[in-house]
Amino acid sequence: MDFSLADGRIFFTNTQERFFEDGNVDIRTRLPCERRRSSCDADRKFTVEEAVEVLGVGWFQFRLWAITGLFSMADACEMMLLAVLSPELRCQWGLSQTQVALITTVVFIGMGTTSPFWGILADRYGRRNNLMLASVVVWYFGLLTSFSPSYFWLLLLRGLVGAGMAGMPHGFTLLTEYLPQKYRAKILIFGSVCWATGTMFEITLSAIVIPRLGWRWLLALSSIPCLAIIVLFRYLPMSARYLVGAGRKEEAFRILQSIAKINKTQLPEGELVEEMQDQRGHPKLLFSRSYLRTTLQLWVLWFGTALTYYGMVLASAEILQLHNAKTAGGQTCKCSGLKTDDYVSMIFSTLGEYISLPLNMLLIDVIGRRYTGAVNFVGCSVFFLLIQVHVSQEVLTFFIFMVRGFSTGIFNFVYIYTTE
């Protein structure tokens, strides 16, 4: 027991005792922590997560948000490209509906088959290296697609673009690692601005380029966001969590020091240590008793999320063409491309993604992640059903607008919920 003697009374205090073989005890009072600060600081330990909480939000996070936002923008451009590319290729190459659908399908096949490998690579070599490779793959094969000599080569190259797109979400994860919990949800939701901007950029670019220069130039110009990422890559930091887990604590500490300098704050005193984890980065953990239920639930959530959002984005051009056919008395033309009114409708419906941001920023902290997701799923379902009703193009555009807004809210929820 730690104690000291004073005037015959026992007081509990900070003491240090040494026991000798003859039974005597040498009792020495320990100095308070303030009087031996150097030794106390050496005993203190902090993790990357704790350091991020202390460093707060500043210029570093805003710069990181802008760079990782380019990954989201590039992803959105490549995805929205599919919606406007299909009508052009169907006309110029005389493709069947099945062949047109396969142009989109191969992208998701590339994404689905390579996603597990991107995760393994990120755990082994770090998210920054992963993102660099993914951006180069998307840019290079996206540019090559513009030179496709045949339908087969188009499918092959778009499949490789999809394989690269599977690595893009690691930018979202990297941003999450450097955000304090208090501001994390709001900043991540605001990141949807980048995705919506990428979608808007692609539709506007399509409306300008396709009628004048054709689809090949559209493919080439759509690779610009990935090229911008490669140029700005020097400003993207390594994952401090990865570095600590890989035993490279000094590198991680230097990154945290640079964040403190940029944000004009201070790191906690003490030694940087790794968070206590039994196992790291093995896919079998997803099916362990601790995580199996969460894994299955997330699979269902992601299936519904992808079905609603990508289904609406990729089908919007077809929906507008079918509406035009009904308005014209049911007469369809195989080579009917998108008209100016169709591009305007797609641009207006994309605004729904901006409108949903303030609502979700409010709800996700007030009613929580799960209920916010439920509200968006219900709203999306209602307006998806209303699209089946034959109405004017203005009303149809409003229905698509609402679906895009709610489906974006679903994406916000599921990304944050999964990452956390």
TrEMBL record:
InterPro entries: MFS, MFS_dom, MFS_trans_sf
Gene3D superfamilies in the record: MFS general substrate transporter like domains (1.20.1250.20)
Ranges for domain Major facilitator superfamily (MFS) profile: 64-420
Membrane topology type: Multi-pass membrane protein
One example GO MF annotation: transmembrane transporter activity
Tagged with keyword Transmembrane helix: yes
GO cellular component: membrane
Membrane-crossing segments per the record: 64-86, 98-118, 130-147, 187-209, 215-236, 298-323, 343-364, 371-389, 395-417
Name of the protein in question: Major facilitator superfamily (MFS) profile domain-containing protein
Key word DNA damage present: no
Pfam families per record: MFS_1 (PF07690)
Subcellular location: Membrane
Keywords: Membrane, Transmembrane, Transmembrane helix, Transport
